[in-house]
User: What shape does this take?
Amino acid sequence: MPEMQHLADTMLAAAATVLGRLVDQPADASAASRHVRDGSIRTDGDELVTRAEIPSLGIGVVVRYAVADMERVVGLMLGGVEGAGDVGAVQLSIVSETISQITAAMAERLAKAVGAPAEGIRAECCSDAASLPAPPFESYEGMIQVGSAAAPSVTIDFDGVARSKLLAGGSAAPSEAPPNPPSGPEPSRRSQPPPAPAHAQPVSFATMSPAPMRSVQPSPANLDLVHDVPLQISAVLGKTALTLRDVVSLQAGSVFELDKLSTDPIDLYVNNILIARGEVVVVDDKYAVKISELNPSVAK
Assistant: This one.
């Protein structure tokens, strides 16, 4: 029967392995300290909360990370030693993907530690506390030293259901084969004659003829039914490709080059479908588009 302390230490070791690979620096995990949490887990504080589902065990495990710690880890991933300040939309996306990978690796190591398959494990960030298990939790907190620049704190929360199944070695053990019958002569049975074979008879099918097809007159299209459907129209000035490092370094005053000349027309998309091209004009102090080409070729 596995011990919860050993399982938590194993999961922290898996987190250290993933973090070390992400930042390309050595990472070591400390021993986990145990405490009991009676209250619910909040998703609107200074922590990022993830939940990993382990289908082979039928349980979910919650892993929490401090926002400031993961901000510093992202800074290391981008080549620096400091965080990027306040976590914006791009940085938060990087942090979310990073902690999801770490949590999934921790769940896979947990499943292997109790002898359960790791197939189907998935992890994601939780923004709704209602999707998390109910308290109380048996929580284990540890620290991962990443080089000399960061030491993020990681907390693992096991609810009552997860704890009971893990202590029992998992609830999805494969079914055992029935025991072999005892050796020795079988008890005598009354011999019965085999059933008489059934006489096969040829099957005859009735002759079928195709039914005549009726011609259907096309009804006139009633476009009035869809005239009030709202559509999203986008005017695209140009596109470009940037590396992740360039995107997170953008700030007020940054300039990057697009793939079109200043004299080229802009593209008009309706629900992400190219329908026209035109030129930018100004109407009543507002930008507008004067259409110069309808249904253009995409390859143009």
Observations:
- Residues 4-167 form a domain with the Chemotaxis protein chec fold (CATH 3.40.1550.10).
- The two ends are 66 Å apart (CA to CA).
- Helices lie at 4-23, 67-77, 89-113, 160-167, 244-248.
